[in-house]
Structures are given as C-alpha cells and as structure tokens.
Amino acid sequence: MATIATTPVLPATTRTRRGHAERPSAFGTAILLLGVVYCLLPVVWVVMASTKNGSELFSTFTFAPSTHLLDNIVELTQYRGGLFWLWMLNTAIYAGVGALVSSLVSALSGYVLAKFDFPGKGVVFGILLMGVLVPSVILAIPQYFLLAQIGLTNTYWSVLLPQLISPYGIYLARIYAAAAIPTDVVEAARTEGAGELTTFFRIAIPMMAPGLVTIFLFQFVAIWNNFLLPYIMLGDDHLFPITVGLSGLLNQGATVPALYTLVITGALLSIVPLIILFLALQRFWRVDLAAGAVKA
Amino acid sequence: MTAVTQTAPRPAVAKRRRRDLRSRVLTPYAMLLPGIVLFLAFMAAPILYTVVLSLQTVKVEGLGLGPDSRSVVFAGLENYANSLADPEFGASVLRVFLYGLIVIPLMLGFALLFALLLDSKRSRATRFSRVAIFLPYAVPAVISSLLWGFLYLPSVSPFVFLANLLNVPVPNVLGPNLVMFAVANIAIWGGVGFNMIVIYTSLRAIPSDIYEAARIDGATEVQIAWRIKIPIVIPSLIMTALFSIIATLQVFAEPTTLRPLTNSLSTSWTPLMKVYRDAFTRNDIYSAAATSVLIAVGTFVLSFLFLRVVQRRAFGQED
C-alpha cells in the first residue's frame, strides 16, 4: 500500500524491496543466538566438566576447563574391565541392527500398502496407524511378562525384537513409496516377468532410498533413546545399553561420589558418535509430519 | 475400486482372473507377513495380555503360606476401581497434567519462534543456529537429565555461582516446589529443536511468491509471519502438539534419572513410574496392568484427533 510512496523511483524498486526484506535484524538474530546458547549450555558444560578430576568438579568454576580429560577416559576405560565400552558396543548393536531391520520391514510393508490393491488393505493400514498412537513405553511392561514366559528376558533379543516393529516407520514408508515410485515402473517390471521381491529390492528400494535413511535415523534415535525397555528387560549389566549403564552408575554415585567423574566423562563420550552421525546426515532430517505425502 | 464396477467376465477370462486374484491377494499378504507377525507379537499380544492381567487378581487363602494358598482369580473391574480411587494415581496424573501445561506451550512456542526466525530473510547465522538448536535431539533423555541434573546442583550450577557473586538468594530448583520446572526444562531442552525442524520444514514448503505479494504491499516480516506463515503451518503445530501430548503422558526417563540427585521425586511421581513400581517393586502386576490400560486409554482419547487430521491430510486423495 505504501510502497509507491516510499520508493518512487520505479527501476530501483526490485533492489530496494529485496534490500528492505533482507536487511539484517539484530533483534531476531539475537533471539536465535539466545536459543543457541540455551541448547549448547549443557553440551559445553559436559565438555568442560569431563576435563576435571573429582575434587575440581565441585570446587572450581563450572565452565573452567582443567587437564584431566585423558585421566578420566583411562579411568573410565578401566572401570570393571572396560564395561563402559561394552555398553557403547551394545548400544550400537541395539540401535544399529534394530534400526536396519526395522527400516527394511517398514520399507517392505509401506511399499505393499502404497503400491498394491488387495482386500483388507484399509483395515491393515488402519490398525497399523492406531499402533502409531500406542506409546511403546506402555508396551514395555507386558512385553517383559510375555518374553519372560518364553525365557527371553535378560538377553539381547529382549531389547532387539520388540523394537523391530515401527508403525510410524511403516506410515512414513508408505508416504515415501507413494510419492517416489511411479506405478508404471512397477507394472513394467511385472510385465517383464520380474518377481515381486526382485521388484522391491531392485527398483523400489533404490527409489525410496532417501526416505529410508530418514526412517532409519528416526528408529535409530528412538532405540538409542528408549530407556524403559532395556531398563525392564535386562538384569545383567554386561547387556546394558549406555543409557541404562550410566543411569545405574549415577545411582551408585549417590554413595560413591568418585563415580561422578566417570558418569560425566561417559556422558560426553556417549553423545559424541550420535552428534557426528547427526551432522553427517543432516540433510535427511526433512520432517514433514503433516503434509509429507503431497510432495512428489 | 477394482472389480466391483465390472460386468461378469467370460469363463476363460474368469479363470485367469481367479488365478490373478489369488496372487493379487496372497502376494501382498506374504510380503506384509514380517510386519504383521511383529505387530501381532510385540504390539497386539502385549496389549491383549495387559487387558487380561488387568481383570485378574491374586487371592490369598488362609495365612498365604504353602504353594496352593495363592491363586489367580477373575477380578472384574476391581483393579480399575482401585487404581482410579488411589490418591497416588490421581496425584501423578495431576502432576503430569501440570507438567504438560508447562512443557507443551513453552516448547512449541519457542519451536515456532525459532522456526519463523530461521525462515526470515532478515535473520543471520541461521545455518549454525539450526544445527545448534537441533543438537539436543541427538542427546538421549537419560543423558540430558544427567547433564541438567548436575547443572542443577548448587555446587555446580553457573546460576548459583552468578547469584552468589551478586549476593542474591537462589531457590533450590531440586526442592519440592520447583522440581517440576527442573524436569520440564529438560523436556523443553530436548524437544524444542525437533519441533522447530518440523515447523521449519513446513515453512520451507510454502512457495515464496505467496508472501512476495504481501511484501510488495509493504507488509513487515512480523505481519507476514502472523498473517500468512502461522496460519499455513497450523497443521504442523497440531501434529507436534499431539505428539507432545503423547510424549508427556509417558514421561519416565527424566524423573527416574534425576531421582538420585534429589529427594523431591517420589517413586510414583508420574503415572508410568507408578506402574513400574507396582509391577516390579511391589510385584503387583495386576493393578499395574489396570493402570497401564488407563494410561493407554487416556492417550487414545487425547490423540484421536491426531488420527483424523493425519488421515484426511495425508491420504484423503489417495484412497
């Protein structure tokens, strides 16, 4: 409305307009940076704190670094014969293998639900979609009692198996399959005589690949994050993932404060690989919950 | 949409179509088998089992000694009645409700604000900010509770340090009055980045010529955000809100991890903590099952809306 009055010289309008729209806003940037400070505060703290020894932890200024990082890592490594690294390995197994198999199951189911017409399709999808709403945490306790009856609790299986099914993964896979795989391509493969599984592995999977990476990441983080399931299922601390292990260590720290440095150093070491994974795969975090389906 | 509208086919065609139909039905179900089996074993069966357990109870005869004195009997809705009447359960539900009232508006409010700022052409350092604010999502709830837990300790907290320098009294955030905010802060910290990315993704999907016109008319960035961008991302906001409600109802890891550092968190601080305690500390799986079912039903009621929105928006045109 007022543009013409303020910028009367017509040829310059485009430049002026963009210049106005893109003029840096110190206020907006400052708010963003405040958010950054808030989000990085605990991360910076854990980096600093893991360089301190037990007495410095509670006596020197919180964000003042010290020189004991290596000592702490050595001490943590020696704790009960390298138990910490076993926890890291277990976490990698649970999250890595679990997310890989889960993505494959999701991809297959999502592909079928998107590209096949068969009786009962709506019912199957509807039931699966209800599964999205069932918090996996609520399932953990009955899963424990069911697995206890076949003697599977306190094993790797008890943490791996329940997390292979991801209704949300199937839901996302269906969206990706519907958007990324043209039906003619599937039809053409069928006419050529390719088996359904061959079509899936050779044609569907490569076309869905970027979406599958997103599903993998989601499930990886979900398993890595899941505390209650391993907390309930496992009694043997050699099977613990890092979260349950560190939480137990913190619990003992209430009586043995020397363990606090180990907990803090362990916390730092445990988030480093995940942060690297995040930064490396950043472009796959396209999380469009509401309208994911419409983009082809 | 397949066979319903077609007229009766000739015999030879009918035979081929029958074979076709069989493969058309069997093949998809065979391919869905892994998903269906896992779903039945690890979602449907546990749910059914919980319902069955919730309707039973242990009956003790005599002094409760000897192998035959304890038997499992049908209890009807007794466990549900007990759960609902249990003041501890009521208190934990109320607590989670208040907790959600703190967490959800603040988390989504900040997520929306940051997403709009990232999307604004006038902000600087957006790439760095986006990564930094999203980073907490990579930190598991247990680890973030652990980090914040230490930062809450008066001997470690930088805020207490600052307050001491300025000679201002500081309240103990791990005390009984403020511990709710201490837990809420951890959830907000962990969730802002993820929700910001969700909202930001849907902001990026808006074609920019929509507000190019508004800019030509002299609208400010704030007006564009308020009048155009926010209304367009409302579906994303509804979605994130409902996911947040589901997550709030099952809060467990944060308070459980914080417990060693404070006396203000009881073993039944949240409904799920109470279920855990009943099932594993008190060995009363029957009432724990009833409480689980109540939590699940509560979750379902609250997320029913979610299902409708998702189905209409994502699949309305496809089926």
From TrEMBL, chain A:
<keyword id="KW-0813">Transport</keyword>
<keyword id="KW-0812">Transmembrane</keyword>
<feature type="domain" description="ABC transmembrane type-1">
    <location>
        <begin position="88"/>
        <end position="281"/>
    </location>
</feature>
<feature type="transmembrane region" description="Helical">
    <location>
        <begin position="123"/>
        <end position="145"/>
    </location>
</feature>
<comment type="similarity">
    <text>Belongs to the binding-protein-dependent transport system permease family.</text>
</comment>
<feature type="transmembrane region" description="Helical">
    <location>
        <begin position="84"/>
        <end position="111"/>
    </location>
</feature>
<feature type="transmembrane region" description="Helical">
    <location>
        <begin position="203"/>
        <end position="224"/>
    </location>
</feature>
<feature type="transmembrane region" description="Helical">
    <location>
        <begin position="165"/>
        <end position="182"/>
    </location>
</feature>
<dbReference type="Pfam" id="PF00528">
    <property type="entry name" value="BPD_transp_1"/>
</dbReference>
<protein>
    <submittedName>
        <fullName>Carbohydrate ABC transporter membrane protein 2 (CUT1 family)</fullName>
    </submittedName>
</protein>
<keyword id="KW-0472">Membrane</keyword>
<keyword id="KW-1133">Transmembrane helix</keyword>
<dbReference type="InterPro" id="IPR035906">
    <property type="entry name" value="MetI-like_sf"/>
</dbReference>
<keyword id="KW-1003">Cell membrane</keyword>
<feature type="transmembrane region" description="Helical">
    <location>
        <begin position="25"/>
        <end position="48"/>
    </location>
</feature>
<dbReference type="GO" id="GO:0055085">
    <property type="term" value="P:transmembrane transport"/>
</dbReference>
<dbReference type="InterPro" id="IPR000515">
    <property type="entry name" value="MetI-like"/>
</dbReference>
<feature type="transmembrane region" description="Helical">
    <location>
        <begin position="258"/>
        <end position="281"/>
    </location>
</feature>
<dbReference type="GO" id="GO:0005886">
    <property type="term" value="C:plasma membrane"/>
</dbReference>
Automatic annotation (TrEMBL), chain B:
<dbReference type="InterPro" id="IPR000515">
    <property type="entry name" value="MetI-like"/>
</dbReference>
<keyword id="KW-1003">Cell membrane</keyword>
<feature type="transmembrane region" description="Helical">
    <location>
        <begin position="25"/>
        <end position="49"/>
    </location>
</feature>
<keyword id="KW-0812">Transmembrane</keyword>
<keyword id="KW-1133">Transmembrane helix</keyword>
<comment type="similarity">
    <text>Belongs to the binding-protein-dependent transport system permease family.</text>
</comment>
<dbReference type="InterPro" id="IPR035906">
    <property type="entry name" value="MetI-like_sf"/>
</dbReference>
<dbReference type="GO" id="GO:0005886">
    <property type="term" value="C:plasma membrane"/>
</dbReference>
<feature type="domain" description="ABC transmembrane type-1">
    <location>
        <begin position="93"/>
        <end position="306"/>
    </location>
</feature>
<dbReference type="InterPro" id="IPR050809">
    <property type="entry name" value="UgpAE/MalFG_permease"/>
</dbReference>
<dbReference type="GO" id="GO:0055085">
    <property type="term" value="P:transmembrane transport"/>
</dbReference>
<dbReference type="Pfam" id="PF00528">
    <property type="entry name" value="BPD_transp_1"/>
</dbReference>
<feature type="transmembrane region" description="Helical">
    <location>
        <begin position="232"/>
        <end position="253"/>
    </location>
</feature>
<keyword id="KW-0472">Membrane</keyword>
<feature type="transmembrane region" description="Helical">
    <location>
        <begin position="131"/>
        <end position="153"/>
    </location>
</feature>
<keyword id="KW-0813">Transport</keyword>
<feature type="transmembrane region" description="Helical">
    <location>
        <begin position="96"/>
        <end position="119"/>
    </location>
</feature>
<feature type="transmembrane region" description="Helical">
    <location>
        <begin position="285"/>
        <end position="307"/>
    </location>
</feature>
<feature type="transmembrane region" description="Helical">
    <location>
        <begin position="173"/>
        <end position="200"/>
    </location>
</feature>
<protein>
    <submittedName>
        <fullName>Carbohydrate ABC transporter membrane protein 1 (CUT1 family)</fullName>
    </submittedName>
</protein>
